């Protein structure tokens, strides 16, 4: 349990609760859920530019990272088909993957196919079911993909001014504006309470909020004097109590709850809002192909990690289909913008390619 780990090192409850958010980020779990301590470890392992456990902003926004990868691939001769949806994986008579078919009818032939889509999309939608072992298909169907996350992107006409550290007269970003700001995290019990509400089908009345202002470090993201605010919030169930859908009314009601919470810490925040984009779990699934809206392509619980990710006997990036590999967050070691699954899968695929 993360609470037991944090109790060994810290005395301050707000500090322990803030650190505990990394044990539940993106997970339908509370700091009191057994095994959630691993998620905390997952988020602080590794390093960034020599600093252990550090995270960073991508200059130009997260899309700039994808563009950098694309440029590097193109420099080595890769052909990139953007905005081209894949219909299914092409299989030869020997059962090997031989490329992919696009929805416009185009066939892209190759000796290897690597998929960074979720295991659910890769094996349940893009691969002929009769070519897969029944127990494997059942396992993929049973992966826990519950997600508590609603992402809210906000445009504001001035920096939030927090009661704990008010802005200076010149309106320039202060050190805390350039960090991750955690709200409603004064006590681990608050996090557990927010989780409990979601398990009963109700959005948290006092949500866990992680607030970032990337434009404080990267001014090019917003017009002069304005800023973009990224809100990573939870807990919101994928399906509301009574089977009610996430319609516009439900979306806006939850977003209003989040904004009311921020207003209590930073009066004037609501008046500074120019626009907002609300992405509930069903929205994240529909737009980005995240099963259940899960940013990790599946829960990071102990039964879905290491040799069991995405299924027992298939944690080494190879799939039941020869020459088809899984290289996204649904593969070992799981989610996070670190590229480990892709790098490992590429090495395995390259090894196999040399023997073709």
UniProtKB/TrEMBL annotation:
InterPro entries, sorted: FAD/NAD-bd_sf (IPR036188)
Family of this protein: Belongs to the carotenoid/retinoid oxidoreductase family.
Protein's name according to its UniProt entry: PYRD2 protein
Lineage of the organism: Eukaryota, Metazoa, Chordata, Craniata, Vertebrata
